[in-house]
Design goal:
Blueprint lengths: L2 H15 L2 E2 H8 L3 H13 L4 E3 L2 E3 L7 H4 L4 H14 L5 E4 L3 H8 L6 E5 L2 H7 L5 E5 L3 E3 L4 E3 L1 H8 L3 E6 L3 E2 L5 E3 L5 H10 E7 L11 E4 L6 E4 L5 H9 L3 E4 L1
Parallel strand pairs: 4-5, 4-9, 5-6, 9-12, 12-14, 14-15
Antiparallel strand pairs: 1-3, 2-3, 7-8, 10-11, 11-13
Length: 249
């Protein structure tokens, strides 16, 4: 495999899955740990990642939607199926930006629901489903991430209320703090939390701890966490002490 191709795959793995160890990257790419270490040195010199003990991390905000959508699909689908089962016909659902929300939208076909979103891929998925009343929030288009953000989106959310909010995240800190890598998304997510009656965090195992420099909310602002693997006991206790129901699928 050419070095340039390895570099692309290393960056994709770090962007989609968070911090990764040298040994994990070595297994994924089928090359020696020594080769991965040299690649990480080169990529750090180019300012594309940061080496940490035993591996590396990329903390970028604008990961292309199509790239992120390709990873952990089975895990996201399992989480999405559980989330969809919580919703009753006739209810309103607010879907966040991100790929897990898109996988959830695919589970809602044929239902009688109102779906509110700033996620353009969710809109495209549900636009032809006549049983779903679809509300698309306004805002500035982020083409790479197929979403709408900004003060117009936040203003729209102040005028709406939903029975359910299904929230995505870039990472969850051990104390239960929900984080995001992209600062511009945080005010929209906070406005969604205020607009939702029940707030459900959808987070696959790669989101613990995941990435993110900007705090979205604490565990006290959530009602349910749906994940695909048991959460470490410290993080689980943080959620449960805040009254959050932890559901593992």
């Amino acid at each position: 495999m050419l070095a340039e191709r390895r570099h692309q795959l290393i960056l994709r793995a770090l962007r989609s899955g968070g911090p990764a160890a040298v040994t994990d990257l070595s297994e994924q790419l089928g090359v020696s740990p020594a080769t991965i270490r040299r690649d990480l040195v080169r990529l750090e010199e180019e300012g594309l990642l940061t080496r940490v003990h035993g591996g590396a991390v990329v903390d970028e905000g604008d990961q292309p939607f199509a790239e992120v959508a390709e990873v952990r699909v089975a895990e996201k689908d399992a989480i999405a199926a559980k989330a969809a089962s919580m919703v009753r016909d006739g209810q309103s659902v607010l879907l966040d930006i991100g790929t897990t929300a898109y996988r959830l939208a695919r589970q809602l076909h044929g239902r009688r629901l109102t779906v509110i979103t700033s996620n353009l891929v969710v809109y495209e998925e549900l636009a032809d489903d006549e049983g779903i009343e679809l509300v698309l929030l306004g805002g500035m288009v982020r083409r790479e991430y197929r979403s709408l953000v900004g003060f117009l989106t936040e203003d729209n959310l102040r005028q709406l209320h939903a029975d359910w909010l299904f929230l995505g995240t870039s990472g969850v800190r051990p104390g239960g703090q929900v984080m995001d890598t992209t600062v511009v998304e945080v005010p929209v997510k906070r406005a969604m939390i205020r607009a939702g009656d029940k707030v459900v965090l959808l987070a696959d195992s790669a989101k613990f701890p995941g990435t993110g420099m900007a705090r979205v909310c604490g565990p006290g602002e959530l009602d349910v966490l749906v994940t695909n693997e048991p959460v470490d006991q410290g993080t689980r206790s943080s959620f449960e002490d805040a009254g959050v129901e932890v559901v593992t699928v």
